[in-house]
Amino acid sequence: MIVIMRNGATPEQIAQVVERIQEAGFRGEVMTGAQQAIVGVLGAPIPSELGERLELLPGVERTQRVSKPYKLASRDYRPFDTVIHVGDVAIGADEFIVMAGPCSVESLDQVLRTAHAVKAAGARLLRGGAYKPRTSPYSFQGLGVQGLEYLARAREETGLPIITEVLDTADVATVAAYADILQIGTRNMQNFALLRAVGRANKPVMLKRGMSATIEEWLMAAEYILNAGNPQVILCERGIRTFETAVRNTLDLSAIPVVKKLSHLPVVADPSHGTGKWYLVRPMALAAAAVGADGLLIEVHPDPDSALSDGPQSLNLDNFAALMTQLRPVTSAVGRHLPDAAVAVAPGR
Ligand code: PEP
Ligand code: MN
């Protein structure tokens, strides 16, 4: 349930509402928009008499029940867009945020080269997997803590915050000690123990859509993180399994405006995993920006042909810079902006 305060309700009136909610055994969360404040009531089940009693308080316009199965993730609960701050980067605000870097951290040299290049092209975060979820146990599994150390070194040199995947509840504390954003991969979208664990972490979480998950299941997974006490959730559409074989996954672009309507959480698109082919990344990245994504996650490698994972879908450094150049007019057409690039490079590979 939410309590919608009148325009101009005083801080004392808002505090009184929170107090009454607490007296009834629930928790009140104050959310402030440009015009109006809303107090969310946390806890279940909420008796309808509570709503009736709160409506009698001064400054209260009305109460409203949230009927969606996901509550905290829903726009019915929080009508204002959530903006997630990582250093000087704001995800979900006016700036279109590009996170870029290799699928896997392979060496210090590879990460540093990529980090400098993506930064120069206008990326705002560095991505790179140190713990890799691989289909085969014989494939490269990631460098683990060594990989996290290399990412931290790249952050030190470039100032780019880092986003990296955590695969296991046992590693959450270690990964959170290095990462600026914790990534939950598609295969773990419904790993509820892991969702609860990152929900207790004091770091933003990027939750990828499960490859066979409906939008509702995806938002319910976000609800686990929010309900565990972590309000900093970013959603990432990374493609779903369909009957189509021409692409690795079907990037569900319609999910982006659907989720923006249903939820207040920022949504980014991952056209790398969403297509599996480097030459499809640019058109789908532009399309994702056009349909209202808050940003992109892009795999970039200095030499994709020698990558230890996801080479076929990785952009080389020149193609990444070219993508950033092409993104500018698209983002500005939909009212977003990108930081200026330090370099402009023509497409190579
Ligand atoms: C990744 O980002 O490298 C990754 C493994 O992504 P996903 O979970 O979407 O497959
Ligand atoms: Mn990958």
Number of domains as seen in the coordinates: 2
Q: What percent of residues adopt helix (DSSP H or I)?
A: 25-40%
- Main structural class: alpha/beta
Low-confidence stretches: none
CATH superfamily label of the largest domain: Aldolase class I
Q: Looking at the structure, what is the overall shape?
A: elongated
Oligomerization status of the protein chains: single chain
Strand order of the largest sheet: 7-8-9-10-11-12-13-14
Rg to the nearest angstrom?
A: 21 Å
Tally of DSSP β-strands: 14
Count of helix runs: 11
Describe, in plain words, how this protein is organized in 3D:
- There is one protein chain.
- With 349 residues, this protein is α/β, with parallel strands linked by helices.
- The protein has 2 domains: 63 residues, Alpha-Beta Plaits (2-Layer Sandwich), CATH 3.30.70.1140; 250 residues, TIM Barrel (Alpha-Beta Barrel), CATH 3.20.20.70.
- The protein contains 11 helices and 14 strands.
- The strands form 3 sheets. Strands 7-8-9-10-11-12-13-14 form an 8-stranded parallel barrel, surrounded by 7 helices. It has a 4-stranded antiparallel β-sheet with strand order 2-3-1-4, with helices on one face.
- Strand 7, helix 3 and strand 8 form a beta-alpha-beta unit.
- Helix 10 packs parallel to helix 11.
- The protein is elongated, with a radius of gyration of 21 Å.
- The model has no long low-confidence stretch (mean pLDDT 96).
- Bound molecules: phosphoenolpyruvate and manganese (II) ion (MN).
- Phosphoenolpyruvate binds next to loops.
Task: Characterize this entry briefly.
The protein is α/β, with parallel strands linked by helices and 349 residues long. The protein contains eleven helices and 14 strands. An eight-stranded parallel β-barrel has the order 7-8-9-10-11-12-13-14, surrounded by seven helices.
